[in-house]
Every structure is written in structure tokens, then in C-alpha cells.
Amino acid sequence: MRTSDQRTVSSKQLGAALRVTPTQIRKDLAYFGQFGQPGIGYDVNELTSEIRRILGTDRTWNVILVGAGNLGMALSAYRGFARKGFKLSAVFDDDPSKVGRPVSGVPGLQVLSMQEIGRIVEERQVRLAIVAVPAEAAQSVAEKLVAAGVKGLLNFAPVNLNVPADVAVSAVDLAVQLEQLSFQVICARSD
Amino acid sequence: MRTSDQRTVSSKQLGAALRVTPTQIRKDLAYFGQFGQPGIGYDVNELTSEIRRILGTDRTWNVILVGAGNLGMALSAYRGFARKGFKLSAVFDDDPSKVGRPVSGVPGLQVLSMQEIGRIVEERQVRLAIVAVPAEAAQSVAEKLVAAGVKGLLNFAPVNLNVPADVAVSAVDLAVQLEQLSFQVICARSD
DNA sequence: TTTTGTGAATTGCTTCACAGCA
DNA sequence: TGCTGTGAAGCAATTCACAAAA
Lengths: 191, 191
Hints:
The structure is a homodimer.
Chain A: E1 8-9, H1 11-18, H2 22-32, E2 42-43, H3 44-55, E3 61-66, H4 70-76, H5 80-83, E4 86-93, E5 111-113, H6 117-123, E6 128-131, H7 135-148, E7 152-155, E8 168-171, H8 174-189
Parallel strand pairs in A: 3-4, 3-6, 4-5, 6-7, 7-8
Antiparallel strand pairs in A: 1-2
Helix pairs in contact in A: 1-2, 6-7
Chain A binds a DNA duplex through residues 10-12, 21-24, 26-27, 29-30, 34-42.
């Protein structure tokens, strides 16, 4: 391995970085095709774009956010978005006093009324939405989003969303995260 | 199965609810001991408390929160905490203008200075902490918490925290969640 | 009967080991 | 020599199938 030449990377290096065996890396990558060259390794640029293609991160996804409360504001200020190819396209809230306010951290964006959801989703071909509203409002918001054509929901409300089978939901449940953590802490203690 | 008598539950019922096979349920539960009765099933109360004991959710965990920005405020207002046996015990921030402010949603709590972390962690036997500070501050906050004796970190900052092996870290990475979601949306389309 | 708990069979995943290419 | 891709081996998780208990 020559650290000066990092146009290629070996399964050994990747494995060390990801804490898995080199064979695991090779098996996993081979599943999607043949990217590497024997004796050389994987071309970093080629591998990066292949993985992007596989994961669907080779395109920019328009994302909308519903809920301009504390959580919504924190999320819209989150910098990791753009870096991973997600563009916060619009923010919605049903509180009239919040509509029209600028969105901190995203120049040129202001909070829109919920009635605009349908129009924006269609116009900008939005497929992903973040639900950051109180629990009691989450289901009806989800239904509005699905009706508008959204296919993936990232749900921060502590409720189960009922959606059609062709819509993906990923829930961020703080309590579950903490439970997992407390379980790990117990296990560590009894080692 | 008699729905009127739900003092017991069978592996079949549990499996249907959790979308796994009844055998899986029995194998998993048997790993921790013998809770069930042949011909009857599992006593709901007994099973519940056994699972609580196994997962460590039979006690109340004191949790502290570092960072009283938008995200921190959203998290402290989160209701699911207490329901799952977690008690938000204190909130810290290094911004002097925030110190002393009341914490919305948690009566009797006010934002404390970072210097108090050591004392509070020791006094209240805190083992879990939530890191809700900007990325650039996260590592030093993590080190302070670990030094104070915290054994589990729930990290919302978009950085990898470097901690000793006996400390558990669970990261909530918005970008990763969105990536998974976009992947699912792609897959659904090609079905 | 109904349903558990568990050996045995099976499936699936991971690692080994090596042929073949650069 | 260095490294990939992959068949074969090894291991772990899941499912099957049934004795035993209620």
C-alpha cells in the first residue's frame, strides 16, 4: 500500500476502515458487479460513482419539511443535507403566524402554508418528505403528503404512520434509540 | 384463541403481530429462560416484566442533554421520554445567555452551565447523555461527558465521536436516514 | 387439544483458500 | 508480487418437527 497514490483502494484498506473483513468487502461489491482490478484494487472514483448509482445518491433529491417548530428549524439548519445530495426544497406549517417567515440556514426559503403542498410536490417532483409535527397532527400530514405523490417519509413524530404499501416510512424514535443505548450500557457492564 | 381472555398470549399471536414465525418467538424467548406454559402460552404480565428486566427498561434512567439550541429544545419537549422510563435530568449549554433559562416542557428544569456536568453526573448517577450541539463542539462535549462517567451517548451531531471502548455511541444521522429512504423509494419503483 | 421448548435439518451468511489477472 | 472474484468450507441463525405439559 502506498498512501501517496490513493487513486485506488484495496478491499483490505476498506475493510480496515469499516471494521469488516476484506473478503466481506469483496463479496458485497461483487454482488453488484465487477468493479475491481486484480493486483490493483478498486478505482476510487469509479467505485464512488458506482456506489452512488447503487444507492441512488447520484442524483439530487428534493426534500420537503413539514413542521416549522423547534425540531423543524433544527432540521432545516442541518448542514449534512446538501453534502449528501438532498436539497431542502420547501418548509410547510399550518400555523398562520409562521407562514412567510424566513427559514434560518437556507437563504431564499420561507415557510409556506400547508395548502401549497400539492402544488410544490408536483411542480418540483418531490418524492421525500420529513414529518416534524406534533404526534396528533402526523397522520393527517402523512395523508396529505401521500395524496400529493410523496413516496418516502422520514417521521420524527412518536406515532406509527399508516400509509399505502408503496410508500416507505423511516421512523426516528428517540425512545427506541435510548433503549438500545441503555441495553448496550447494561451489556458492557456485565462483560 | 379467545380474544376476551388476554391474560396469556401465544407465540403464534406474537409472531403474527411482529411479522415473524412463531418458532422464532419461542427460540428467542427460550434463550433467556422458560417463561411460557405448554398448552397455554405466555402470561402477559410476566412476559412484559421479564422483557423489561432483560432490556433494562424496568428501571428509570436519568438522561442529560447537552445543547439548548433548536434541536435541544425540541428534544426536551419530546413526550416519549418518560413513557419509556427515561427522565430528562438536566440540560446544559455553554452559552451564558442560555444558562438559567427554563426548559420548555419540563417544569422545574433550567439550563445549566457546562461546568456543572461533572457534579450532576456524579450526584445523580447519570449514565446516558444526548449530544445536541454543533458538529465542531461535539467531540469536546463527548470527552467531558465520558470523563464525568457517562457510558452511553446519543449523538445528533453529524460527526463521528471518538470514545473509549466501554462507552456506547448511537448516532442519529439525518442524511443516512434520508439515504436509506431514497434507496427504498428506488427499490419500490423497480418492483 | 393447544402450545411450549428443543434437538435435528435446513437455510443463509461469512470466511477460507486459491485460480487468474495486472 | 498484490489483489480480485469466487467455489468450497465453516459457522450461525432460522425453521421443522415432535415429545412433553396443561
